Structure prediction request, 79 residues.
Amino acid sequence: MTTTASDDSGISEYKTHCLFCGEAIEPLGADPCGVVLVTQWDQPTDKQHAQQLFCHAERIRTAASSKTPIHVLDREQSG
Ligand SMILES: [Zn+2]
Prediction:
């Protein structure tokens, strides 16, 4: 889904692909967006696993139900 490489400067050069559509995400506006997935969120941290995923802002906005407003995208649009 996502590949990461670092150059000698230590600055990461990354390519992100959207978890929803699989397309590459160009850096524009709120994109790329990162989503952190945590398994067994209600359990002690030693039982959890975490992974950062990437998606298009518009994809997560349309995928989320009305009961889960994505506040950070509203902030991005208002500056
Ligand atoms: Zn996408």
Summary: Residues 37 and 54 are 10 Å apart (CA to CA). The helical segments are 57-63, 71-78. The pocket of zinc ion is lined by residues 18, 20-21, 23, 55-56, 59 (CB under 6 Å).
